[in-house]
């Protein structure tokens, strides 16, 4: 591919790579916290759609599936309403069983699954196995999953859950072939939606479909390979966070263990630090507290016992006593009339009082370890954090202290501390952190010297640790920012070819080529991606976008409808279908699809805008105004569609003037 000649195409690519740069510095989990910030930002059972991989055949089946999706998203009332309208039958029993399972009525769920098993043996047996596995009965679960596979040998979810049950039953060796088979099948019905790495003019790729089952299977296979001493563990574990950020923390912890088993202390520290940062979730609520470092907050329970807690939310009783969300106490009472509770890093509590010049200290939370820091506005979402700190401690107190204090240092102080370590045993951690710090400086100042220093640090880490995959991703980002498009393409292509389990290089390469307008090269990249993951939805969506951009609207619509026959709940494909119907002038179908999306999209801000615009063009002003007002009131619209939000606000004012 040659560098694009036109300034417009170069700027389009630069806008894309700037967004990619922000993403990748987060993706590899070494994006140093802001200077002077107050803190760093057993196998799970994967829920299964209550349907087979075949297309939905009738309205009742589609409604049953939709009810399950609403229940899984937490809208239980809507799920109940939908189920109440369905005719009796095994598919309805299965959907009602899933709702009962989510609501904790496990005996009722088991009864409904048994009743559905005569007509839907594979799905019902799978759901029964899922119940048994969650109830800690792996032997029973194994029987149910094997029965499901007798009826449906290519049931990928049954293969995956059977692997989990075998692992829980102490048969890890037998589990590996089922994980291999899961990854071979890569079923389309396990696709879920997460926000994509970029936003731009390719609107259908704004939310990218990813396969959570693939991510979980890679994570589980990596964990088992590591436990059994098999090769390929690190490859699987580095690939799994590509697909679902929720998998990153466990993968990073296991990568730390794997590096430690090889005696590479610096790489182990790098992965464990990333695990610890990922285990913390910012909430923005000042009374949410989490511990950074070893130890815990000691909370007195109602029975008088002192319990160590790593994460909690503070509350205040009517009489002013400080409590946590479970009713634990700290022996601290807030003065009457005090407000704006603040928590220092050492656990000191301060409050403001009327007419006070400074906040007043009212007590200190008891900590089990003096080295622990209390972070306000965070919660710890992964129980592995304490184990990660213990593993860091085993690397030596200097390593543990380094990881503990870095987030509270300025960028300049971090650079001064880490630079001498860049050639020693701690080089992996030092080089990755230094690269992220210099990259952060570049993002703030746009000084090319900082970008080149970040590149030098990533190149050094790539030379010393060629098996690490994220340095190449970051070097590709830097090449994009430096407008070295051939270099970026070569890095992404090389990473893709060297690590077949990884899907992110495919995704980024396709998006880059599309942003550059290199349609032939993008189509070739799409076809190569489809060969590696035949059921992946992202390459298929990208192909349709390319066809639409080339003016092949009819073919694009045909392929979109084929994609929806495989993945009827893939919202992005449905929005793309609506756009293509509009291009072809199919107004009636376009309106019908948008009205259906109002019910099926849990956050239908785009539907409100698009349907409002359609009715506006049709002269149905009052209905359009109502939809526009609802759109302007949705929080997602202002965050994700700022320009569109402003345009709709202007249009609403114009319509009001017309009505007057």
CATH level 3 topology of the domain at 59-189: Serine Threonine Protein Phosphatase 5, Tetratricopeptide repeat
The main β sheet shows up as:
5 strands, antiparallel
Mean pLDDT: 83
CATH class of the domain at 59-189: Mainly Alpha
Share of residues in helices = 55-70%
CATH superfamily of the domain at 59-189: Tetratricopeptide repeat domain
Per DSSP, what share of the residues sits in E-state strands of 2 or more residues? 5-15%
Radius of gyration: 27 Å
Report the span from N to C terminus: 57 Å
Biggest sheet: strand arrangement: 9-8-7-4-13
The number of helical runs is: 30
User: What is the CATH architecture annotation of the domain at 59-189?
Assistant: Alpha Horseshoe
Query: Uncertain runs with pLDDT below 50, 5 residues or more?
Result: 1-57, 193-208
Determine the oligomeric state from the structure: single chain
Task: Characterize the overall form.
Answer: globular
Structural class: alpha+beta
Number of strands: 14
How would you summarize this macromolecular structure in one to three sentences?
60% of the residues lie in helices and 10% in strands. The protein has 660 residues and is an alpha+beta fold.
């Amino acid at each position: 591919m040659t560098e694009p000649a036109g300034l417009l195409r170069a700027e389009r690519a630069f806008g894309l790579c700037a967004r990619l740069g922000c993403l990748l510095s987060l993706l590899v989990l070494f994006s140093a916290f802001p200077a002077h910030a107050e803190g760093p930002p057993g196998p799970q059972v994967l829920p299964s759609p209550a349907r087979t991989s075949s297309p939905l055949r009738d309205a009742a089946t589609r409604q049953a599936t939709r009810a399950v999706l609403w229940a899984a998203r937490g809208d239980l009332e809507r799920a109940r309403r939908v189920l109440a309208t369905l005719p009796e039958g095994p598919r309805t029993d299965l959907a009602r069983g899933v709702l009962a399972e989510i609501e904790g009525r496990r005996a009722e769920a088991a009864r409904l699954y048994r009743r559905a098993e005569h007509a839907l043996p594979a799905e019902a047996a799978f759901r029964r196995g899922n119940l048994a596995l969650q109830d800690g009965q792996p032997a029973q679960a194994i029987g149910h999953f094997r029965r499901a596979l007798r009826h449906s040998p290519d049931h990928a979810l049954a293969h995956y859950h059977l692997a989990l049950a075998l692992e829980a039953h102490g048969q890890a060796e037998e589990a590996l072939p089922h994980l291999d088979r899961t990854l071979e099948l890569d079923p389309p019905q396990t696709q879920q939606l997460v926000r994509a790495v970029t936003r731009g003019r390719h609107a259908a790729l704004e939310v990218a479909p990813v396969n959570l089952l693939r991510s979980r299977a890679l994570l589980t296979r990596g964990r088992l390979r590591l436990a059994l001493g098999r090769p390929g563990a690190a490859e699987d574990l580095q690939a799994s966070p590509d697909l679902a950020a929720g998998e990153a923390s466990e993968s990073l912890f296991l990568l730390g263990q794997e590096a430690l088993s090889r005696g590479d202390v610096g790489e182990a520290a790098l992965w464990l630090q990333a695990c610890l940062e990922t285990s913390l979730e910012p909430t923005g609520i000042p009374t949410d507290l989490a511990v950074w470092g070893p130890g815990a907050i000691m909370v007195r329970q109602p029975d008088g016992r002192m319990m160590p807690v790593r994460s909690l939310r503070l509350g205040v009783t009517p009489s002013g006593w400080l409590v946590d969300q479970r009713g634990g106490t700290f022996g601290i009472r807030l003065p009457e009339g005090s407000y704006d509770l603040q928590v220092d890093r050492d656990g000191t509590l301060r409050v403001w009082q009327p007419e006070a010049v400074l906040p007043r200290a009212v007590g200190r939370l008891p900590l089990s370890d003096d080295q622990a820091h209390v972070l306000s506005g965070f919660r710890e979402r992964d129980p592995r954090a304490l184990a990660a700190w213990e593993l860091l401690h085993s690397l030596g107190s200097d390593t543990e202290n380094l990881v503990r204090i870095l987030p509270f240092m300025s960028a300049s102080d971090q650079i001064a501390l880490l630079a001498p370590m860049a050639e020693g045993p701690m080089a992996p951690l030092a080089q990755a952190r230094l690269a992220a710090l210099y990259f952060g400086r570049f993002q703030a100042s746009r000084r090319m010297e900082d970008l080149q220093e970040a590149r030098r640090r990533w190149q050094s880490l790539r030379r010393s640790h060629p098996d690490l995959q994220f340095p190449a991703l970051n070097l590709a980002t830097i090449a994009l920012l430096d407008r070295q498009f051939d270099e970026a393409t070569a890095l992404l292509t090389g990473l893709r070819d060297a690590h077949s389990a990884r899907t992110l290089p495919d995704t980024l390469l396709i998006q880059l080529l599309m942003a550059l307008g290199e349609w032939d090269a993008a189509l070739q990249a799409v076809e190569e991606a489809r060969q590696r993951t035949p059921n992946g939805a992202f390459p298929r969506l990208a192909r349709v976008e390319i066809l639409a951009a080339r003016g092949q609207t009819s073919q694009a619509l045909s392929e979109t409808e084929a994609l929806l026959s495989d993945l009827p709940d893939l919202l992005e494909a449905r929005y793309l279908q609506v756009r293509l119907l509009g291009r072809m002038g199919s107004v009636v179908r376009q309106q019908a699809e948008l009205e259906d999306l109002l019910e099926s999209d849990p956050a239908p801000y785009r539907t409100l805008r698009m349907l409002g615009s359609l009715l506006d063009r049709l002269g149905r002003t009052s209905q359009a105004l109502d939809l526009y007002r609802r759109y302007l009131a949705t929080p997602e619209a202002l965050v994700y569609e700022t320009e569109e939000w402003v345009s709709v606000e202007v249009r609403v004012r114009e319509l009001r003037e017309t009505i007057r």
